[in-house]
Specification:
- It is a single chain.
- By secondary structure, the chain is mainly alpha-helical.
- The chain has a domain of 87 residues: Topoisomerase I, Chain A, domain 4 (Orthogonal Bundle), CATH 1.10.132.
- Helix 4 crosses helix 5 and helix 5 packs antiparallel against helix 6.
């Protein structure tokens, strides 16, 4: 009987321990603990005059993370605005540089398509309200001309 009580206590202890372990967060801890920390580092990147021209990869090097990590943070609601603002600032810089002839046009196009969702797209409207009416008013061949 004593064995059953001690075994039961051990199982309860294991259950409690397991529940605590379950409650712990699984996965790698966040690189940036708060939006303010990330915002401060991003602003430091844009304030440093040696970082021009701005690029997504260069920002990632500055933040000591890879491009996918930055995109993963963008998926988190609290970090979305901060990262979107930084990406928009980089996009504007590339756009302006391309328009002024400072940046290589081919690279600028490639960059805008891959990092900012730009597209070469033609829209063709195939719906039309103008209809063509075909009127067949030619005499048929089997009509007897004598009548």
């Amino acid at each position: 009987m004593e064995w059953c009580k001690s075994n039961f206590r051990n199982q309860e202890t294991l259950r409690r321990w397991y529940r605590k372990e379950e409650a712990k967060k699984i996965g790698r801890p966040l690189k940036f603990k708060s939006v303010e920390e990330l915002d401060k580092k991003i602003n430091a990147y844009f304030d440093d005059v040696n970082n021009k021209p701005y690029t997504i990869c260069d920002l990632c090097v500055w933040l000591d993370c890879d491009r996918q990590t930055l995109l993963n943070y963008q998926e988190k609601e609290e970090f979305f605005d901060t990262i979107k603002r930084a990406k928009t600032r980089i996009e504007a810089n590339i756009e302006k540089g391309a328009l002024l002839g400072i940046f290589n046009p081919t690279f600028s196009i490639f960059n805008m398509k891959n990092n900012f969702g730009w597209q070469d797209k033609q829209e063709i409207d195939t719906t039309t309200s103008n209809r063509i009416k075909i009127i067949n008013d030619l005499p048929s061949d089997d009509v007897d001309e004598d009548k």
